[in-house]
Design a protein that fits this description.
This protein has 4 helices and 13 strands. The model has no long low-confidence stretch (mean pLDDT 88). The protein has 216 residues and is an alpha+beta fold.
Length: 216
């Protein structure tokens, strides 16, 4: 399937090439496009199906599925907010998150203090974290400040999704993050009218954009 050996339980995405002994075959039934949800995660919710401590989870907010289950495309930590994506296709989620795609993730981060131009350059050239080097594809100051000017907001773009990576990068230069909001993941942007704790179904055009990336 698409050049890989299929395993039991694999699902073919729409447009996938299926072959047996090297010969293309037609699917028995037309492929159904996967569903995709855009969810505005608030601070304080966990990206897990259940929590032993009884804390709120993002999955409790999602609509029920007649078959299968929702799979998150990427994660956000407990204290981060913003765009979180869910699909009913584990195959789509796995392919979209594969490092080879280098999908953009855009965040707005409120950090302690103002970064110098040299510090911004370092974050784009790469800093060393405990699990290896990391770098921003882009960083730019946002025109707003809080707490009497002690904190600054920055827009950053990163192309991988290691645990707490954005926070750890700023912390490596002595600028801890006090707020972190994901604004965009690949072709999906957080709708301006989507309030925290609410979800919206992606348009067919947006689903098609995700399928295009996943087929690369």
């Amino acid at each position: 399937m698409d050049g890989k050996v299929a395993k039991l339980g694999d699902r073919a995405l729409p447009g996938a090439v299926i072959a047996v002994d090297g010969k293309p075959v037609a699917a028995a039934v037309p492929a159904v496009a996967p569903r995709l949800l855009l969810y505005h995660k608030p601070v304080g919710e966990l990206v897990t199906r259940s929590d032993p401590e009884g804390r709120a989870t993002v999955f409790a907010r999602l609509p029920p599925l007649a078959h299968g289950r929702w799979v998150s495309i990427g994660r956000l930590d407990l204290n981060s907010a913003g765009l979180l994506l869910f699909t009913d296709s584990g195959e789509l989620a796995n392919r979209f998150m594969h490092p080879r795609h280098g999908v953009d993730r855009e965040y707005h981060a409120r950090v302690k203090g103002e970064l110098t131009l040299q510090e911004q350059k370092r974050l784009c050239e790469g800093v060393t974290l405990a699990d290896g080097p990391a770098r921003f594809a882009r960083i730019a100051p946002l025109p707003r400040a809080t707490d009497g000017g002690l904190n600054r907001w920055y827009q950053v773009v990163i192309r991988e999704g290691r645990s707490r990576e954005v926070r750890r990068m700023f912390e490596s230069l002595g600028h801890p993050v006090s707020r972190l909001v994901r604004r965009r993941f690949g072709p999906a942007a957080l709708p301006s009218d989507l309030t925290p704790g609410r979800w919206v179904e992606a348009s067919p055009a947006l689903v098609a954009s995700f399928l295009k990336v996943a087929r690369r």
